[in-house]
Amino acid sequence: MSNNPYRFVRPEVIAILSSKDFFKRVESKPTRASYAETILEIGEKDPRVVVLDADVSKSIRTNKFAEKFPERSFNFGIAEQNMFAAAAGMATTGMIPFASTYAVFASLRALDMVRNSIHYPRLNVKIAASHSGITPGPDGVTHQGQEDLSIMRAIAGSTVIAPADPTSAKMAVWAAAEFQGPVYLSFTRDPVPVLYGPDFPFTIGKAVIIREGKDAAIIANRDLVVQSLLAAELLAAKGIDVRVIDCHTIKPLDTDIILQAAGETGAIVTAEDNIIYGGLGSAVAEVLAENRPTAMKRVGVQNTFAESGPYHELIDKYGLSARHIVAAVEGVLKRK
Amino acid sequence: MPQLKIPMSVGDLKLMAATIRCDIIEMICTAKAGHPGGSLSATDLVTALYFRLMRIDPANPRWPERDRFILSKGHACPVWYSALAERGFFDKSHLGTLRRLGSILQGHPDMNKVPGIDMTAGSLGHGLSVGIGMALAGRLQKQDYHVWVVIGDGESQEGSIWEAAMSGSKWKLDNLTAIMDRNNLQNDSYVDKLMPIEPAADKWRAFGWNTVEIDGHSMEEIVTALEGAKSFKGAPTMIIANTVKGKGVSYMENVCEWHGKAPCREEADRALEEIRRCSCEQ
Question: Which of A172, A193, A214 is the last residue of a domain?
Fold first, then answer.
């Protein structure tokens, strides 16, 4: 057990990390479903919680909340601007609105409301965004929120969370509900493995080392955390021992854990299902450049839109798979 | 400060409106920037709300049971700042600090800086939606407060206004009243030349709102319409208030350039004299 480098990762997951059919065997669930389940629990406990939808409640599954709490559920139709500004109005009265839609619409269509009527007045609105990243694969580019983290990170006073798995997603929703102020929550359309058990220590702004390692560190978020774990296994087979950090909160960023990783490993790779500009990779690069210049490489969506396709084929084509992270680590190690 | 007799009589409201118009001119002249035209067109409406209609307590600006007011056309905030100061929400000495570094009175209103500002505003097309949210929350919390939102006629070109219009009638929000400051002008030109909103009243009726049209400078008509809106049941009310941009200052009236230009000292003095003279004649 003392040789086990993993922290908080479920033993059932660790046991099959090297398996060729890992994704077939591992228990998985979309984190949008975790959001929908958690908001039911929170709604039970806190009558101030209301859920706002924009005609995708069946997809995000907040229709369950609407069935259970019809008086606290408001479907605005296909009108995201109205929904987010109305959420702001509700928050001024002490309600805690969770406004749910897809990441592209939350971060782009309604961005003016999200910036000027939610963040500027620091109103207690929770933005629950499903279909983040390019991974709402089959729907294609118009529904792929591949720059939501970059956009939301640029807003003053924002808190931006992209949980990796269903367990931490549930914890993130609870934490957001208890947090005073706007929070952007980024969820996946597609199933992601249940990586963590209930002992996962979720705190907003605190990244978590989920695999110890000394040769390099992979800092990842959302659905690329599992790809980073798979990459670590592939690298271990080659004798390379990498640390994996689940950096679920992209803002405020856990600079301590990043600088510690840079100091102890001297080689950093970031991995995100987000455009390469302005997201996790950029955030980590900023910290390193200003404090401890370190050899690094960013894995993410390059200067391109993606396309329709099944999840795993899509992330492989666009350079976001474990093998790409492996190549990035090997490349950085040469520059160390 | 002399004790105000609230709710004010129509006569007192007219005098207060003149005082507020003078404040607006002074503030914008001192700041050397601001939006006099749309502040002056909305003055009678805002005065009637703050000094007669609204359930508010200047000593307790965040009173949960208070009526809410949103100036969705946030650039006209000098009228809001003046009304709040005259009503006693904060000291009138702040009015001279409009748009200055460190001032509570931002170029567009900030709810976290000014006592009595119920919602930050400035980006057009937000306020009516915010009002929808406040009205829904009020109903859910079984509060009987009323939500008042002033929108611009130019602002009505924003698509989100019509998203809000649909939702107001879907939820039958009779605790919400919108007032359109129909002053016919916007930054670049005449509203109905640039991007026509007519037939405005028919549109709001078609969207399911209890819609009335008034002279937005007749205090009698304003008070009657606001009282009617407050007691109307089953749908939100839209009051289309026909106004004159720059009302009360002859050289500003119906002149597009005064949308966002500050009067110089000499122009301001002329404006103040006109407003005071008119007010004495009433």
Answer: A193
